[in-house]
Design the sequence.
């Protein structure tokens, strides 16, 4: 083998080593990205709290009595036509007392605090949602925490590939857990979880969204894979909480 051939062979080896090194770097990046996605899905490390922890001491809680859970409405049979979405007419605002709009919810036993903003209705006449994984929405056409009736707050289980803070509703929250809702005035309202139920999206009891009835706090999130046909997840997780005075 001539000196020139030896030099060409060595040059090919150097090129192969550089190419392999590039491939190793690319593979390592894909592996690290995969680990990042898995961690983001399984933990809340990438969805930190979005509200301050209220400076309040939870009052003593008496024994929790279970509430009656309404029987879910029957689901539509396969092939049965679904009802068209209703014409959306925006109801009037409840106009809560000055400073009584909820601005944060704190899961006392889990040390998770979530920012809350008001929401209305979407184009289908349903309660709207916030396009963020770490912010919840208060239904502004319903009662506020200091008003009689059903105060409704909903948050995402997952949004845009990121785990939502309201995933706690099906991953950790239990009956008897304590919850604080901070209002614009700085006043804090206290609640205790009475029930946690799961419903198919088309079998959610009417009582979940009704504004009247006994005074309570209703927390809602979705669960399950996103259906591109329905443009939503197929399951709802609903936690009903009673006030503690």
Sequence:
């Amino acid at each position: 083998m001539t000196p020139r051939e030896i030099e060409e062979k060595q040059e090919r080896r150097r090129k192969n080593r550089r190419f392999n090194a590039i491939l190793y770097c690319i593979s390592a990046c894909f592996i690290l990205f995969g680990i990042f996605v898995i961690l983001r899905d399984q933990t809340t490390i990438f969805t930190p709290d979005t509200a301050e922890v209220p400076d309040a001491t939870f009052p003593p809680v008496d024994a929790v009595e279970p509430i009656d859970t309404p029987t879910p409405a029957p689901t539509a049979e396969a092939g049965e036509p679904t009802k068209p979405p209703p014409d959306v007419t925006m109801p009037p605002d409840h106009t809560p007392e000055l400073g009584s709009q909820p601005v944060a919810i704190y899961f006392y036993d889990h040390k998770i605090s979530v920012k809350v903003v008001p929401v209305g209705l979407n184009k289908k006449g349903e309660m709207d949602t916030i396009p963020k994984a770490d912010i919840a929405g208060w239904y502004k056409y319903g009662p506020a925490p200091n008003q009689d009736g059903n105060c409704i707050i909903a948050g995402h289980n997952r949004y845009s590939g990121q785990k939502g803070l309201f995933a706690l509703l099906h991953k950790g929250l239990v009956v008897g857990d304590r919850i604080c809702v901070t209002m614009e005035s700085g006043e804090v309202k206290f609640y205790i979880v009475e029930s946690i139920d799961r419903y198919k999206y088309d079998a959610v009891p009417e009582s979940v969204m009704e504004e009247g009835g006994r005074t309570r706090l209703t927390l809602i999130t979705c669960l399950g894979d996103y259906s591109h046909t329905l443009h939503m997840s197929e399951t709802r997780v609903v936690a009903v909480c009673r006030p503690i005075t």
Notes: The beta strands are 102-107, 112-119, 135-139, 150-154, 158-159, 162-163, 178-183, 188-200, 216-227, 232-244. The chain has two domains: 1-42, 50-244. Residues 63-88 have pLDDT under 50 and may be disordered.
